[in-house]
Amino acid sequence: MPISETQLETWAHQGAVAQSKDTYATIRAALQDSASPYAGRSYDIFLQGSYCNDTNVCADSDVDVVMKLNSIFYHDISDLPAEEQELYNAARSSADYSADDFKIAVFTHLARKFPSKVTSGNKAIYIDADGNRRETDVVPCVQFRRYFRFRSWIDNSYVEGITFWSNGGTQIINYPKQHSENCTKKHQATAQWFKPTVRILKNMRNSMISKGHLAAGIAPSYFLEGMLYNVPNSVFGKTYQATVVNAINWVIECPDRSKLVCANDQYYLLREGSPVTWRAENLQTYLDAVVKFWDA
Fold it and tell me: What residue spans of 164-272 are helical by DSSP H?
């Protein structure tokens, strides 16, 4: 029997907002402390993830915060013609501060601000929940630029993202602001159907995992958003049942899934060997499980 419209409407609801907002304000104020070891450097603090994108559900417990250093940046000039690569290499200079230096400084500062609540993970710094403050992941990272033109420091073109390294040494490059902006545009272009549908898919995924229909880790929320981002705007609307069925069928019937993109429009959604893309076999596993779960 298909999942009822009433159940889908329940799953479409957004999770806690006020508590997440207060948590972000607390963490942001701590990071902006003028006594921090990085206080004299240029940086940005902003949200990423489900709370930032209004796709959080009740099961989402953490707030994702990006702490991006702008005083230095890393780059990719592989798209530049050879002569512009030479111009860039001649113009650049080495920095006396690194992403590792910044990560250590942020961790040390947060550990002082939240004693016994802070641990360093593979990719982020974790701050435990305490009272009304929710769990928080802080990602210390550095500005990243992918150049498309370079004649000089005043005549150039690039897309800006973030970069950091896992504890194992893997460099991760991502574009959270583009992801958020594109999800908002998609939401507007679908007459406000996109984000509730993302929340439905996340809640459905959580239910599938709890009932043994899908293994945890197969369908991360980030990739579900990316999958749905590719679905044509005309598929959204009328009812949640129609939207979910038509969206999943569109992905199932997509003639070339290799052309699907992440919501940031900077990466393909399905690629092997990248920490920021989905495995094609995991998408297929998810789709097979959804079809069975819907008709169970």
Answer: 176-189, 194-210, 221-229, 240-253
pLDDT at 94 > cutoff 90 = no
Mean of pLDDT values over 101-107:
97
Q: Which of 132, 152, 174 is the last residue of a domain?
A: 174
Domain boundaries, position 161: 15-174
Report if pTM > 0.70: yes
Q: Of 154, 174, 194, at which residue does a domain stop?
A: 174
Domain count, the chain: 2
Question: What pLDDT digit, counting tens, does each position of 144-179 carry?
Answer: 999 999 999 999 999 999 999 999 899 999 999 999
Q: For residues 152 and 66, state if they share a domain.
A: yes
Sign of the CA dihedral 190, 191, 195, 200? Answer: negative
Which of 250, 268, 267 has its CA nearest to residue 259? 268
Find, among 43, 171, 161, 150, the residue nearest to 102 by Cα.
Answer: 43
A 10 A CB-CB count for 19 gives 15
Same domain assignment for residues 85 and 164 = yes
Determine the Cα–Cα distance for residues 228 and 278; give it in Å rounded to an integer.
Answer: 13
